[in-house]
């Protein structure tokens, strides 16, 4: 059965809030949160999968959450090592420090578990309609990205990519071109965009990224600006000189509890809305709205929202956008 979307990476998050309270053993790493956003928008009807390496210590609560959102878990590859796990420590000013627990500092073994090789994935994962994956902007796995993009295009889908960290230095034009040539949607946050292309407004950096993308590369750039909202621009056609963009404020009255994974949820929601669209300008704005709503719902819960909350919020989201 064809999967609508496959997301990558699983880390068990042990979250420490500024007041010292904790929320332990939460699904993290980006993949689960992206699946949340995708399923929220698809109304839990999407067929989704999570690709990651895990150990025998994967908490039952995490398995249960994946089961409840109807995720295919055959892409969870069992390793002899423990499941990647990290402290997520938040400060009152919003800063976050991630400290890996079982495997120490990032190493080859860790990356192998976070981002499995395509050859190791189930056959159904190799023919999914769309994919979403996080990358380091200075060290993108170009071969993997190209393989996933080709597989998605064969099914009429897309490859969505987001950085999971800022770049340590500005990217050269060739490096930036290579990265953007290997995906369809590229979605950094405003600080990540600035780290890649230099200081400037989010709108300027968004257009810089779109202009840097080859004609056969990423056609859509999304910049996430936290509580200020998000913006996106897409080419109207094959010409690099023709594009259209929108800015959408964040959802009002979001009661922020935990911002872990909000960007990932946004990306999953945006992708779910965007795939299968006609490419008209209104579709871009609609996809921003879905992504922002998914991020808002993620922010209002500690860890990934529970399935019962997910079902209720699907109805709320449809009502919010006047779609029901």
Describe this structure in words.
With 324 residues, the protein is an alpha/beta fold. It has a single domain, classed as Ribokinase (UDP-N-acetylmuramoyl-L-alanine:D-glutamate ligase, 3-Layer(aba) Sandwich), CATH 3.40.1190. The protein is 35% helix and 22% strand. It is built from 10 helices and 14 strands. The strands form 2 sheets. Strands 1, 4, 5, 6, 9, 10, 11, 12, 13 and 14 form a 10-stranded mixed beta sheet that branches. A hairpin with a 7-residue loop joins strand 13 and strand 14 (243-248).
Question: In total, how many beta strands?
Answer: 14
Rg of Cα set: 18 Å
The fraction of residues in strands falls at 15-25%
Helix percentage range: 25-40%
Give the biggest beta sheet: 10 strands, mixed
Let me know the CATH homologous superfamily.
Answer: Ribokinase
Alpha-carbon distance between the termini? 30 Å
Structural class of the helix and strand makeup?
A: alpha/beta
Please mark out the parts with pLDDT under 50 across 5 or more consecutive residues, or reply none: 320-324
What overall form do the CA principal axes indicate?
A: globular
InterPro entries: PfkB_dom, Ribokinase-like
Protein name: Carbohydrate kinase PfkB domain-containing protein
Pfam families: PfkB
Organism: Chlamydomonas eustigma
